[in-house]
Design a protein that fits this description.
Oligomer: heterodimer
Mean pLDDT of chain A: 97
Number of strands of chain B: 9
Helix content of chain B: 25-40%
Radius of gyration of chain A: 12 Å
Mean pLDDT of chain B: 96
Largest sheet of chain A: 5 strands, mixed
Strand order of the largest sheet of chain A: 2-1-5-3-4
Distance between the termini of chain B: 37 Å
Shape of chain B: globular
Largest interface: A-B, 21 and 33 residues
Structural class of chain B: alpha+beta
């Protein structure tokens, strides 16, 4: 199955793109999506400890399962206001 | 047409338009519940400051995950309503380049009495900084850098309690 990955701020800069498609195995979690992303962009690895994720516009844990056509976002620490 | 209560926009923020929208929403609540109408409205503006960490700032550039940011604002208003049931909040945040002295955020709170409006406004800005998926890139004399603050974790009760304590200081 295939999900859309959204990246923001520094993560977007590192990956060089704000959006990409990722193929994942059935039963995959957000953590698996992240692992696949790091495999393509190893420079993202240090961010794992300070990351938030969202699935279909809801903040989500990394252990959450993903489904085909999901939008999965990875976000560095926020600085709005 | 009334302004949306929660928005992320590339346009210059219009605080009076948000004030009107929030007061109108509060009035609709009061008409429905019979509670007192608005007697206090606070407007908080966050401006782009000319200095940060000893650096001379030239401008900021804001990026947002827009639909999740709007949902975060709605969530913050729902949280605030738990603590201050009779308040109404509106939150608008700007994206893109913002010049020194311009507003990056406007938060309007309306309530029957001032204490709740001030408290809810402070709570809202603390929570925006904790959980809204928005990032600022600072352009300063000599370079530019992403500013990174809190790891957004909306269910982190400790962070929520901290915002609550600050709002009641």
């Amino acid at each position: 199955m295939r999900v859309t990955v959204r990246l923001f701020a520094r993560l977007r800069d590192i990956a060089g793109t704000s959006e990409l498609a990722a193929d994942v195995a059935p039963g995959a979690t957000i953590a698996d999506v992240w692992a696949g992303l790091v495999a393509r962009h190893p420079d993202l690895a240090p961010y794992e400890r300070s990351l938030s994720a969202a699935r279909n516009l809801e903040y989500s844990r990394f252990s959450a399962a993903v489904a085909d056509a999901d939008e999965i976002a990875f976000m560095p620490p926020v600085s709005g206001g | 047409m009334s302004a949306a209560l929660f928005a992320v926009t590339g346009a210059v923020l219009d605080a009076p338009a948000l004030e009107r929208a929030v007061v109108r929403a509060h009035g609709e609540d009061s008409a429905r519940t019979g509670d007192p109408g608005a007697g206090a409205v606070t407007t908080f503006l966050g401006l782009v400051r000319d200095q940060n960490l000893g650096r001379r700032v030239l401008h900021l550039d804001y990026e947002a995950y827009e639909p999740l940011a709007v949902r975060s604002f709605e969530r913050i208003a729902e949280e605030a309503a738990v603590h201050w049931p009779s308040i109404r909040l509106g939150i608008h945040h700007r994206t893109g380049p913002v010049a020194i002295g311009e507003a990056s955020i406007v938060i309007v709170a309306a309530s029957a009495h001032r204490a709740e409006a001030f408290a809810a406004s402070r709570y809202a800005i603390e929570r925006v900084k904790q959980i809204a998926p928005i990032w600022k890139r600072e352009y300063f004399e000599g370079g530019d850098v992403w500013i990174e603050g809190a790891v957004a974790a909306p269910d982190d009760l400790e962070a929520r309690d901290k915002a609550r304590r600050l709002s009641c200081a």
